[in-house]
Amino acid sequence: MIDLPDLPDVKGEWLEELIFLGTGTSAQVPSIDCITSSLKQCKTCTDAMNTGSPNRRGCTSAVVVGAPRDRPQERSTILIDCGKSFYSSAIEQFPKYGLRRIDAVLLTHGHADAILGLDDLRSWTMQGCVQNHVDIYLTQECMQTVQGTFPYLVDTRLVTGGGDVGTLRWHIINAQSPFSVGRHNISVTPLPVEHGFIGPERRPFECLGFRIDSLSYVSDCHRIPPATYDRMAGSQVVVLDALNMYRHPSHFSIPQAITAMLKLAVRPNPPVLALFVDMTHRIEYRTTEAQLQKLIEALRTFRTTLPADVPENWWAEIWDADANEKFSELHLRHDNAKVSCTPYPAREVPGMHLAIDGQRIKFGQ
């Protein structure tokens, strides 16, 4: 077990809770290669074998729970992504946090770590045991992948065997338009991002994040377009892809994620908290979290030495994400004398932490 870090207070009008079902990649952690090899000594995977380890990671997925403050009886539960480890995570986290019904499922994209748990939704709908159906919200492109993977879930006339499959209702969404989900019409704004490339022409593969109330959730991206940054502006909490320390063609590195948060934080109503997800076994929680907190403290301290009116990239003198990707740990560009004074939480540097499977973030009013 581990003591979770103290987090800043965050607020929402509808949001009450954010619960992480998974914070890892499609490969998950631990790696079977690491834990069965007599030659490799992977600190992350070795620790992940222990009960309660913060290094154990299922496919990135989350549940958001909320209700209108004046109508608490309209509480709704929204699942974001339903990947390979969804059911095992649900077995552990749903009873722990008093979750049962799923009012909506939002799919970010059609990769295995986001959709391969859809068949397990039968456990919610067979004979109406928990609910009669589950509503799924996805783009047309994602729908094509789902239909090819689970044809019998899309067209139940294709069911074979005993015919016991989930009852799912499909809702095609437009990546450029807000939509409403669930029984109580919760407003969701899509956050289009780029997540790798397709084909020899290297066309960017579009993936979605989602803005729900004061939360922006972007779990898979290598680039966030300017228009999407605009949609994220004003969020209290940002969940962000942070694969490892090095540049990757379809994911943010941790240095890129840090810079993305600094870019958001120079806008009006900056975020209070960032939580990094989609991490590989190359990221050992305790070591990297400690490095991250040291870096945040140094950035905050440096910011206090600068005038109020500074360039948008005020951090460039001491922090360079591209340069940091050449190293295996987080560090400043140089030891600057300006970072020797007492730090304070400058608003341009939000809190940033690595997320943990099973972690719950509570939202106040």
Automatic annotation (TrEMBL):
Superkingdom per UniProt: Eukaryota
One Pfam family named in its UniProt record: Lactamase_B_2
Domain Metallo-beta-lactamase: 77-267
UniProt-recorded name of the protein: Metallo-beta-lactamase domain-containing protein
